[in-house]
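Sequence in, structure out.
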Amino acid sequence: MEDVMMATVSDQSGSALCEPVEASDETLMAAYAADDPRAFERLLPRFAPRLWGYFAKTFRDRSVADDLYQTTILKLHGARKRYHVGAPFRPWLFGIAARVRADELRRRYRKADDPTLAAAFVQVPIDPESHLRDQKVRDALAALPESQREVVMLHRYAGLSFAEIGVLLAETEGAVVAEGTVRARAFRAYSTLRLALRDWAPDGPTSGEVKS
């Protein structure tokens, strides 16, 4: 399968021309679900950096991010036959990633002697050159309720819209969460973060305005 397809258009004289059209994520995923490995090779570079970053901004250890990234890729491969052709790819992918993240957080909660210590594992570094600001951001995110923190992670770092997040959260909350509800959670979370980080992270997660 090619990463570009040819679309037929007409020039001013009426002659047919062929122009390359990049295959969508959904088209490539459908091909991968049909066992075309070349489709996945073309799809992977599109989402790999953001997917890895989703885990890297949650956990302190880069090796943990590597492991969870690989786990997600394996789960994606195992679930490819259940992908509904035409369904938005990004929310489907990050639905898998969110479950992997939640499993790891639950594992760490169970492992911690004091459940309150689990918040220390939630890490969202913004500027690696500023350790102090990084710690402030991590602490502020860890202090958010999980329902708000997950919205920030999916909106700010995974790049999903509020509507997409609402559909994704249906898997953990039992029903589609209304876009307005997701937007309200984001508004509360960003307001809290803006207050907590007003002197530290003007370009950090507080800048994720409630627009999409």
